[in-house]
């Protein structure tokens, strides 16, 4: 693969992944793609997600065709291409060879925060639904190949978004743009068809917001899922990007 610069941000749900997509799309040189493997993931797993049938009908369910598109020309021939991915969409049968041709970044969040937000849109949640185990595996795979990705913790990021974005742009070898810090409210044509079910907060936003100070009260299955994911989170959190 050659130009464009392909940035793959590997996240879990209910992180700041959509806000991050807004930041990159607001650059003048950047195209974005919103969870291109989602239709394949739903078609293969049979999971009941909001707008499941619409997502499958609207998207590409053949992962090989998705990968072919992601490694081809960027939308509008943009020089920078930000690809927003959910790590749990990387089902076991998907070959990973193409991933090593991308500039990969991991975006993590405290699983207690993730689960508390997730169950507002989908009542049932399993540990593998939020992608932290898969993020640990992907990090290990890339690190073993000599290309350990930077890890960004969303809580840290929201306390210093400009510093993190400057550091990330520096790692990528591109200039930082102040346009990444603010965007217009509302939906975008680039949003996935599932956006009405998940993106209300981002649609109302015009920039990154400081993380809320709150006590989370999870119980039952939700608490168990968060606890099961905590060791994976701690492992990646120890590797997170640190900025001044």
Could you explain the architecture of this structure?
The protein has a five-stranded parallel sheet, sandwiched between helices. It has helices at 17-25, 38-45, 52-58, 63-70, 111-118, 132-144, 154-159, 161-172, 195-198, 200-204, 220-237; strands spanning 5-11, 30-34, 80-86, 103-108, 151-153. Helix 6 (132-144) runs parallel beside helix 11. It contains eleven helices and five strands. It has one domain: Rossmann fold, CATH 3.40.50. The longest helix has 18 residues, at 220-237. Keywords: Transferase. InterPro entries: Class-IV_PLP-Dep_Aminotrnsfr, P-loop_NTPase. Belongs to the class-IV pyridoxal-phosphate-dependent aminotransferase family.
Return the domain count.
Answer: 1
- Oligomer classification: single chain
> Which whole number gives the mean pLDDT?
93
Give a quick account of the main beta sheet: strands, pairing sense, barrel closure. Answer: 5 strands, parallel
Q: What portion of residues is helical?
A: 40-55%
Instruction: Output the helix-strand order.
Output: EHEHHHEEHHEHHHHH
Unreliable stretches, pLDDT < 50, 5 or more residues? none
Terminal residue distance: 34 Å
Number of strands: 5
Strand content of the residues, in percent?
5-15%
Based on secondary structure, the structural category is alpha/beta
CATH topology heading: Rossmann fold
Identify the strand order in the major beta sheet.
2-3-1-4-5
- The CATH architecture comes to 3-Layer(aba) Sandwich
Structural Rg? 17 Å
Overall geometric form? globular
């Amino acid at each position: 693969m050659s130009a464009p610069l392909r940035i793959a941000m590997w996240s879990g749900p209910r992180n700041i992944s959509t806000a991050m997509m807004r930041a990159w799309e607001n650059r003048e040189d950047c195209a974005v793609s919103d969870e291109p493997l989602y239709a394949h993931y739903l078609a293969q797993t049979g999971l009941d997600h909001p707008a499941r049938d619409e997502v499958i009908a609207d998207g590409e369910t053949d992962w090989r065709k998705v990968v072919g598109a992601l490694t081809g020309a960027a939308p509008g021939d943009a020089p920078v291409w930000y690809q927003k991915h959910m790590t749990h969409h990387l089902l076991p049968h998907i070959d990973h060879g193409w991933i090593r041709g991308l500039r990969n970044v991991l975006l993590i969040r405290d699983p207690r925060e993730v689960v508390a937000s997730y169950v507002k849109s989908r009542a049932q949640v399993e540990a593998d639904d939020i992608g932290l185990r898969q993020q640990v595996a992907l990090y290990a795979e890339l690190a073993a190949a000599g290309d350990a990705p930077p890890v960004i913790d969303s809580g840290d990021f929201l306390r210093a978004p400009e510093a993190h974005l400057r550091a990330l742009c520096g790692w990528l070898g591109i200039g930082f743009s102040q346009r990444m810090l603010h965007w217009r409210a509302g939906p975008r044509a680039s949003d996935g068809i599932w956006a009405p079910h998940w993106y209300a907060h981002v649609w109302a936003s015009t920039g990154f917001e400081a993380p809320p100070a709150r006590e989370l009260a999870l119980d039952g299955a939700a608490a168990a899922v968060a606890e099961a994911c905590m060791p994976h989170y701690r492992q990646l959190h120890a590797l997170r990007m640190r900025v001044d």
